[in-house]
Amino acid sequence: MKKAQIGVNSYEIDQEQDQFLLNGQPFNFDLAQSGDGDLHFLVNHKSYQTKVLSVNKEEKTVNVKVNNTPYTVSVKDNLDLLLAKLGMESVGQSGEKDVKAPMPGLILDVLVAKGQEVKKGDHLLILEAMKMENVIKCPSDGVISELFAVKGESVEKGKILLSL
Fold first, then answer.
1. Three-class SS of residue 156?
2. For a tag site, which of 47, 92, 104, 164 has the least CB within 10 Å?
3. Does 155 fall in a domain?
4. Are residues 63 and 102 in the same domain?
5. Tens of pLDDT along 109-161?
6. Largest Cα–Cα distance of the chain, in whole Å?
């Protein structure tokens, strides 16, 4: 399932076999790509000319024009929804000095060293949790001032892994 937010309106998009569901209801549409970022949708016999203006993968937003009206669409996938459900949607936001474990798990690898300069989005370490490998990314530019995570160590949610 994915969740899209357009202004104050929220939409849940899911797929069951060969059918799409929009807010739990069957949703039939026809889509044609007509050029660089141009899409043409036909929904319930109504035409929508859409142009993708920009995509921000980090913030998971898409700026589009639909019939010449601009919209910003925020998209959340299954992982984003799970993190929100677990109360961890703000993990790794900019400005934090400590990077904490978002969930209990096992440190599989530490990818940085004390004193190393890092940039926002750099991979810091790999945490195995719920049988999945999770890459913990740097929340902001900085220098690793302390490294508390040790390869092979089990950590609890909220444990400080490193400081910038």
1. coil
2. 47
3. yes
4. no
5. 999 999 999 998 899 999 998 888 989 998 888 899 999 999 999 999 889 99
6. 60
